[in-house]
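task queued by scheduler; priority normal; single chain, no ligands, no partner chains; default sampling; output format set to structure tokens
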Amino acid sequence: MSWKFQEPPNVAVITNKKIIQSGDWIAYVSHDEDDGGWQFHNRDPLEEGNAVIVSLRSIFELDESIGELADLPLGWHAWRERKDAPWQRSKAA
């Protein structure tokens, strides 16, 4: 899959340690309206001690399906019930 994000591959994003260290799958993605930041989370509630900052490229290399979300507007989020389920999207509340 080719690079579809407007942001460069080396932009910093927030994710959960389990995704990086244990290979847990991405269940929730947000594209924050206030700062344009991206967040990638598993099914666990995010706790400050579990958050890590990595490059967008490193997340993409772990799960290329996030490329489907490259056009996710600011202030929106996406989720899926299983790793192989399609992404669902909506404006964040």
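post-processing summary
- Residues 12-77 form one domain.
- Strands lie at 12-16, 28-31, 38-41, 51-55, 76-79, 88-91.
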